[in-house]
Structure formats: structure tokens, C-alpha cells
Structure prediction request, 574 residues.
Amino acid sequence: MAMYAPPIARLLDELERLPGIGPKSAQRLAYYILRSDAEVAERLAQALVEVKRSIHFCSQCFNFAEGELCEICADVKRDPSVICVVEEPRDVVAIERTGEFHGRYHVLQGAISPIDGIGPDQLRMRELIERIGTGGIEELIVATNPNVEGETTALYIARLAKPLGVRVTRIASGLPVGGDLEYADEVTLGRALEARREM
Amino acid sequence: MRISSLRLSGFRNHSERTIEPSPGLTVFVGPNASGKTNALEGIALAANGISFRRPRWEEVVTWGSSDAVISLEAGDDTTHVRIDLHVTREGHKELKINGVKKRRLADLSGLLPVVSFIPDDLDLVKGAAERRRMSADELGGQLSKSYRAIGRDYSRVIRHRNMLLRQWRPSESELAPWTEQAITLGAKLVVHRRRLLRRVIDHAGPVYSRLSGGETLGLEYKDRCGIGLTDVHTEVSEQQAIASLESTFLRRREEEKARQTTLVGPHRDDISFVIDGREARIYASQGQQRTIALAWKLAEVNVIQEVLNTEPILLLDDVMSELDAARRRALTDLVREHIQTFITTTNTGYFDPALLQDAVVVQIGSEGDGSPSSD
Prediction:
């Protein structure tokens, strides 16, 4: 028994492939699209095609970019001497949102993880070293995730970059601002203690 | 805290079952393969996020069911807690504590500590070293979230490092960060583990002496970290452990490459028991081994009381038939000391009738399924 007309079934099938979308969400999205004007569906379809056609990786930092360079690398007002190294393009967005960082980025596109078959060669590690080699870089801020793979990636970068005369720092991980000590879990509190600074 | 209600739905062979246990002793009675141990496992999973069976998560969902739900309500005079653990057929799990979604099962640490005693635990003395390490680390994980996080991260580092040694013919620069991580986390783990074992043996020793009529029980920590101090009463600092690990890794570098695995670190340490100065692994009789296992479990209860200032829940799977009357009494005495206890058995004949009088007896299996009877 076919519950859906074939075109609807096909749409549901495609939607369900998306991360975080289960059968119920897929159904809700599909019905929304069906009820909307044709224009809504066309704008969505166009946006999907356009993003795949026009977006590639920035040739310098490997963030998503429309042109040869991403907007941050192309922005002459950004400090070229400080590079924040992150795992994924979404991490760039997170740090940009803070408004606290005015340097440039380097997106590794992952973290070292031998279990998953990912070593330095599978990441944009060589490109990072080449960037340092071109000169003018004074500090790397390593902002990989605070898990085992992210920490190891940070250590690997530090060992590689320090002999090249670059200052390597690691973002502190610890208490969220506005959080009460009392409610912080021990692990977070432990990390915050370890990363304490002189006052 | 005591469990006031347990609901199992789509969990192993329990399609839908609600049990209202006694604040003292609850006995699950039924024939073999009726699901008694499954009920105990349900408690362990919801209380602690791991069980003595160490299942893959998808295994716990009843065949033909889309998901499993374990719900627990527990409380004492001042607090009430509700735990809902939801596992899908794909092995995804969702934990809620008092209706609030939690990201990690580790958030259960310390909330509702559990001491479980299953027939496999009787191999504690002569079984593989891994069993002894796990007994210690799982207790540590219940006592502190840091211990749990360190143990989890450390074993992940070792898995990565072993994979690297085995599959990648790694360069020194690829291996070095993993070695550094193994040293930092390994040092923390060995220091924490030694401190924990000090507490355990300080309780297990006197218990063992009492049960055995005066023999003395000791514990030796045999590390593969280069520390070489077997007495856990000797405090080892983290810096000391780091220095030992560093030099030992350096010394065994070539051997590790040849054998393609991580040879140095607390994942290879062993714990051995000594009775009156003689190594129990070699010399202990069956009876002595069982007494050591029992003394360890009773010490776990004490350590949890001491560190968390709360009573653990005791889960005893079919061990009564393995122990003689005096040792059975040592366990059932805990019920009188206000420790909520769950026991599975095929035969209530092992129990003191006086104890059974106040117990809730739950029939599990074909006859009584779905309608718990309480005596």
C-alpha cells in the first residue's frame, strides 16, 4: 500500500537523509513545502543548487568561501599575524560570534583520530605549516575541541609550530560565564583550575 | 537513597513490567532464563549508566520492540529523583534526570551508587588483571566524575595509540602527541586508582580477617608505569607518576614499535592479593578466593558510604548459592544495616526465613509475569 504519491515519497526520502531529520520532521517539512506557494519551493531549490555550485574551500584557510579567498582572509583589516586554528567551518562561526578575535583562521577540517583513519595527512596540516613558512605569523591560537582527539591535534600542532618560532597558545576550557561554581560539574571545574592564570 | 519504583519496558525479555521494591530486601525469584538478572541489569543501567554485563546498547532492546525504557524513582527523606533511560534499536540513548535531558550518562555518577555482585566476580583473585582494574575503575567512576572522565579519555587515547602503532607505522612526530596524552592521563589515572585502592583495602582487610577467623589480607599494586611501589599506602604524586611514565616510555620505545601496541601505562597494571604474606593468586583455596571477592564488595559499600555519604544499592545476582551460610549472612546483614538490596535466586531456601518475612518477593518468569506478588 502506497501511503504517499511517489513525488512526495521521494521528497520525504531525501529529507530523511539530512542530519537530525527523522520521519516525523521530514513529514512536517514536506507538508509545509506542499502547502506553500510554488515560489517558496523554488527559492529553496535554487538556494540548495547555488550553495553547492558556488561554495568551495578558501585557498588560504580552508573555510567555506565563495571566491578564491573567504571573506575573512580577504578582509585587509584582519590581523594576519594571529591565526586561530579550528577543526570545522562551524567553529569559525562560533568564534566570530564572540567578536573578540580579529585575526584569521585555519580550518583543519577535522582532528587527528587514528581509530577513524585520520592522521595529519588527512587534514589541512601541511597547508598550515606552509602558511607559517610564508612568514608574518606570530601566534597560533589552537581552538580544537577539548576532547581527546582535539587535545592531541593541539599537541601535534604545538610540536610542529614552536620550532618555527611561532608562539602557540591553547584556548582555555572551563566555566561558562555567568555559571555558578556550585553548579559546575567536577570535570569542567577541574579543567578550569588547571588552566588558571596569574592575577 | 532507595528505589521506590522500577519500570522496564521493551527491555530484554521484559515487555512491560513495573516493580515496587522494598526499602530493604527485594528478591527476584524464578527459573533460569526467566529474566531475573535482566531486572537487576535494568537497575544498574539506570542508576549508573553501565551494567555488570557491559552490553552493546542495541542488545538491550527487546526483539521486535522499537525501543527500551527504564524508569527509576528513588529518594530519601530530603530528595526525590527520577531517572529515565531510553534506548533505541539503533543503540541511541537518551537520559533524563528529573525530566531534564542530560548529555552524558556520566551525569549519573554519584547520584545512585550501586554495588553489584555477580558469579563472575568470584574470579576476582585468579581471573584476568582486567577484571581487577575494572572493579577498581568502575567504583572510582561512581565516586567521582573526574575519575570517570579520566578513565574514559585514557582508554580512548590507548585505543588511538594502539591503532597508530599497528596500522600506521607512525613517525616519531605522529606518535609523540599520543604518548604525551597517555602520560598526562595515565599519571592521573594511576594516582587516583592507587588512592582508591588504599581506601578499598583499608576496609576489605578487617572484613576479610573477621570472615576468615584472623587471616590478614593485603594488596599489592603492580604497575607497568615504572613507579614500582606496590604498597598503595605510599602516596605517589602526579609529577612522580609523569616522570616514571616518561622514562619508561622512552626505554621501551623500540619494543613498543616491534610489538605494535602500548606496553606502558595503567591499562596494563595489575592488582594482587596477599593472604598472610602469600600471593593469593597462587596459594588461595576456593573458599579464600570467595572470601576475598566478598570482602572487596563489602569494602565497596563502605567506601561509597565514606566518600559519597550515602548508602549504595546492593545488587546480588545468584551469588547466594555460591557462598556458605556464614558468608551469606555477611551479605544479608547489610539489609539490616538499611542498605536496599536486590537478590536474584532460583530458590528462596537460601534465605533466613526471618529476613524473607520483611522482603518483597517478586516472581519472575512464566507463572508470575506481570503481577508481582509481595509477601
Notes: The domain at 64-170 of chain A is CATH 3.40.1360.10 (Dna Topoisomerase Vi A Subunit; Chain: A, domain 2).
